[in-house]
Amino acid sequence: MTSEERRRREAYLARRRRRKRQRRMQIIFRGVVGCGAVLLVALAAIHMSRKVQATESLQNSSAKNEVSGDFKQKVILEVPDYQVELLTPNEYSRPQTAMEEVRGIVIHYTANPGTTAEQNRSYFESLKDTHETKASSHFVIGIDGEIVQCIPSSEISYASNERNSDTISIECCHADKDGKFTEATYDSLVQLTAWLCGKFNVPVDEVIRHYDVTGKECPLYYVEHEDEWKQFKKDVQNYLDKYGVEAEEDLS
User: Fold this and answer.
1) Is there a smaller number of Cβ atoms within 10 Å at the N or the C end of the chain?
2) Which residues are CB-neighbours of 49 under 8 A, at least 6 positions away?
3) Alpha helices, DSSP H only, in the chain?
4) How far apart are alpha carbons 250 and 6 in whole angstroms?
5) Is residue 94 classed as helix, strand or coil in its secondary structure?
6) Which residue has the higher pLDDT, 203 or 22?
7) SS percent in the chain: helix, strand, coil, step 5
């Protein structure tokens, strides 16, 4: 083989090696792009699914209200034991905006494991000075079952986004980051929710989670454990059936 033939052969082999490397890089690149696209599509699907669930829940809630004109909820005559510690009027936690009409009860969790009802009430109060955000709740239930009222039921709280104008909000403290309520918190929540349903003639179907309004994972434990949420609503209904009396007039 002449030197010229050898040169041509080496050039040919070099071109083949470059083409192989290019093909391998193209395959790797397509794989990475493909995986990224699949991941983005999956995340978008999850987000959209949660939004659809929240929207459907809100639509179902409105539809139920439209056909419940003759509905009469039983009334709990025994008022729950709670402390009235109203927030100072201010634009960040107690704007004193009148409630249009109570059409639902929204359940929340504080997302601050181990904190007390008083501490969470104090946080809402502090917003008048810090201006950190707009947040509050009508009631806060502590780990030991104590209940503190922060906002009058005739005013809105900053808790449930577009449902602020027609719902009563209840924040619940929890011991651990999983958001599960203690037995004492749970019992107080059942009693308070049932009493509010009777006071404002609200069907138990209109007891909802913050999640059902916006898709936010609140209260976390009852978003992750749908069966436990259904059981909670059954317990509220059972409490009304057992301790409630027929309403003779509109008590709202």
Assistant:
1) N
2) none
3) 3-66, 117-130, 183-199, 210-214, 220-224, 226-243
4) 102
5) strand
6) 203
7) 50, 10, 35
Share of the chain above pLDDT 70, in %: 71
Residue 251: Cβ within 10 Å count: 11
The pTM score is 0.73
- Give which of 163, 157, 180, 178 is closest to 57, Cα–Cα: 163
Q: Which two tokens stand for residue 138?
A: 């009508």
Q: Which two three-digit tokens encode residue 127?
A: 């917003």
In angstroms, what CA-CA distances link 67 with 59, 71, 123, 163? 13, 9, 39, 19
Sign of CA dihedral 160, 166, 171, 172: negative
181 alpha carbon, distance to own chain's centre: 15
How far is CA 200 from each of CA 43, 94, 105, 226, rounded to the nearest angstrom?
Answer: 40, 21, 10, 26
Confidence of residue 247 (pLDDT cuts 50, 70, 90): confident
Please state the rounded mean pLDDT for residues 186-200.
Answer: 98
- Strands ordered across the beta sheet of 83-84: 83-84, 147-149, 139-141, 167-172, 104-109, 207-209
Q: How many Cβ atoms sit within 10 Å of the Cβ of residue 52?
A: 11
202 with 51: CB under 8 angstroms? no
Query: Structure tokens of 219?
Result: 């209260």
Highest-pLDDT range among 43-47, 55-59, 115-119: 115-119
CB neighbour class for 129 (10 Å; exposed up to 12, middle 13-18, buried from 19):
exposed
Coil, helix or strand at residue 168: strand
- Cβ–Cβ under 8 Å, residues 185 and 113: no
